[in-house]
Amino acid sequence: MDTNSQRFVANHVRGLPRSGIRDFFAIVAAMPQAISLGIGEPDFVTPWHIREAAIFALEKGKTSYTDNMGLIRLRREINTYVENTFELSYHPDNQILVAVGVSEALDIALRAVLNPGDKVLYHQPCYVSYSPSIVLAHAEPIAISTSAHDQFGINPEDVEAAWQPGCKVLLLNFPTNPTGGVTERAKLERIARFAVAKDLLVISDEIYSELTFEGEHTSIATLPGMAERTIFLHGFSKAFAMTGFRIGYACGPAPLIEAMMKIHQYSMLCAPILSQEAAIEALKHGRTAVAEMKQQYHRRRDFIVRRFNQAGLSCHLPKGSFYAFPSIQSTGMDSMEFCQGLLQTESVAVVPGTAFGPGGAGFVRASFSTAYERLIEATDRIERYVDTIRKQHD
Amino acid sequence: MSSVLQLLLEGERLNTAQMAQVLGLSENDVATELERLEHDHVLLGWRPVLNPERAQENIVRAVIEVKISPERDGGFDRLATRISRFDSVESCYLMSGSYDLLVIATGCDLREVASFVSERLASVEGVLSTATHFMLRAYKEQGHLLLSPAEGSDRPAVSA
To answer: Cβ contact (<8 Å) for A349 and B158?
Structure first.
């Protein structure tokens, strides 16, 4: 291929870094025998009753487009679900948009509200797509660092300090991928007051909220003054183990949902109808399966955090998600060095924290969405690897 | 339900040391809890879940509907226990509906099961009638699907 073809690539895309996850994936993919704690999705298969609903829909010949906003039956179920789960209420006709995963919902939310040069506050370490998605919307990402000291929750003072003229959006994700961090209600209340004072729009990605292990999850959209300035993003991938269905949704004020719908209708048209039918079944009858999966994640979390700390890798207790984010600073190595060494010597894959932003330096992400036997074996090997490094240093 | 029992019910094969690791208990604690569960007859045994199509090719299994007459003292219990004692009886349940006991019986061949029904079961005093149904094929065994072997996963080894 003519390398000159590069000249056709848009400047802002050329400047985007490749996802650090993809680079690491290429290395792990060449080692099929490795135990991977690098998987960012549930190890459960979608519960059968949900799969069966999709099959039934296919049998009935449901192969058409749907309303751009999504099936009205699904939007009604979403409203019932968010009312019962988060104490949020949205009108199914014009305040709920069904999207192809939260990824699409986030992309169109950013594109719908940002003008070139607008600034977006986001906390990091964070999910790999946040900063690039902001850049792709021709806006400027402003990172707010979270730290292990605060268990990767966000501090209102840090939000206030990071704010600068031109900031239009605050992007939040609690519980957080990759840290499992959450932010307690009192801090969210102060952030909400600041958002009102500075007239910020909040985009809140709450995809891991059902997997909150301690305390109640609070959606910032429920706080005073926030409903009219929050786009609430949620989906089915994590709690219902439906990653491959690619289905999520956005809820918010009608004018914002209408703006997002314009982009969605021209670029995506609608989410796949089979996934929408499966999503209806998940919302109607999926709570038991979610509770069972959560219980298993909870046990695995307690185990892996204990093992990391025993191995001398300081690890805070992630209050949500299915990721542990231990510090590897005591080994004297950087994140990539640690991960490559672990993979080469012990065939265990964890993801370098730097894949999630510079704030991830000195940490690795280990998913505990894996069977116990493999978690035990993987943590045994990690402990051996850390011991070997220590002995080399002594 | 105890955490040890919950972990067992998840179905993953773990030894006592591994269970202790997962639960953050000492091996001794796990062993004590397992002994308690066995002692209290909560945990009755440790048999593997076998695929009858592969591991039990020479075993014939029958479901037998049994009508019995209840007794003044004890209702169905004495007769049900008596029937349950036969080695051929794998399981025995008291049912609602048109019959009383549902008995699952096994044998090496049809003849053995048939002879158990006619010579042993039907002749027990108090047994009024039996209806025997032979199992032809297993599709699911204790939560495990038999006809759709797991296919290789397309899940990437590392993802965001």
So the answer is: yes
